[in-house]
Write a structure and sequence with these properties.
- The chain is mainly β and 189 residues long.
- The chain has one domain: PEBP-like (Phosphatidylethanolamine-binding Protein, Alpha-Beta Complex).
- The chain has one helix and eight strands, in the order βββββββαβ.
- A hairpin with an 8-residue loop joins strand 3 and strand 4.
- The longest helix is centred in the last third of the chain and has 8 residues.
- The two termini are 31 Å apart.
Length: 189
């Protein structure tokens, strides 16, 4: 029996159903587009042996001049939850910030810009929680994304969910850049 198109599993970008916006340059000293997450960016918290839960260094440029703030996130649309998995979300990063150092996603957030804050991702922690694809689930595309906004602040606080932040910034998103890291459990690589 053929699977209907409505029920087909698609590896589509989590941004497929959002309005198209321009991209800009996003780079990292720790991760590379199309390459698996290194062990430091995998999650000891979620049970990956040797995982470091260290947020990657990120740098960005070429975003629209009308940018007033940024959101940085890491999302796994293929997590076996039915709704993906938010690993890290930082909101209200000022437009004057064009990089985050490695380890900026610690629970204390001391390496984040003033007034920026971390939401509790799907693991319930207000910090970077690394990738942790379950054994047998194949490669997961981890989207590390910087979103440029035309507003100074999201108007939310650290108690908002990542999904609600996405809704709140949707009409204010003017550009977006992602590094996608397809990563499988260590026994599948």
């Amino acid at each position: 029996m053929a699977q209907s198109a409505a029920n087909a599993i698609s590896p589509a970008s989590p941004y497929t159903y959002l309005p198209d916006v321009p991209s800009f340059h996003l780079s990292s000293e720790a991760i590379a587009d199309g390459q698996p997450l290194p062990l430091a960016q995998l999650s000891e918290i979620l049970g990956v042996p040797g995982g470091g839960d260290v947020s990657p260094q990120l740098s960005w440029s070429g975003f629209p001049s009308e940018t007033k703030s940024f959101v940085v996130s890491m999302y796994d649309p293929q997590a076996p939850t039915g709704s993906g998995f938010w690993h890290w979300v930082v909101a209200d990063i000022p437009a004057s910030t064009t990089c985050l150092p490695a380890g900026a996603g610690t629970a204390d957030g001391t390496l984040l810009p003033d007034d920026a804050f971390q939401l509790a991702g799907d693991a319930g922690a207000h910090q970077y929680v690394g990738g942790a694809p379950p054994a047998g689930s194949g490669a997961h595309d981890y989207y590390i994304t910087v979103t440029a906004l035309d507003i100074d602040t999201s108007g939310l606080d650290q108690n908002a969910s990542a999904a609600y932040l996405g809704f709140a910034i949707g009409a204010h998103t003017i550009a977006r850049a992602s590094i996608v890291c397809p990563t499988a459990a260590s026994d599948e690589s």
